Amino acid sequence: MPTVKILLILKQLNMTAKVRQMTSNRSGRPVANQFVIYTDYGTYFQSYDSVIALRDNNGKITLDDYYWDYSHTTSKYRNEFLGEGIADTRVKIESGEYKLADLN
Asked: Is the pLDDT of residue 52 over 70?
């Protein structure tokens, strides 16, 4: 549902979006329920029905305060989206470099 919600909001603001399903590094095949959404504002990572992260056009990262570390699968593809491991992400949250907010 968040993908639809994001797309409806963007349409109201006359903004565009493009959705890409993530692919497996091992097989190269599309991964179910893992999406990157490109918008005029920035790039979102969505896992299943939840928006997990936003990288705005200035490179600032915002993570959903509840879902950012929700499951093994979400974490795996969040790490891929951010290009880093969980330890780096935790340090950046603690330092304030990454913000936590309700993205859903």
From this structure: yes
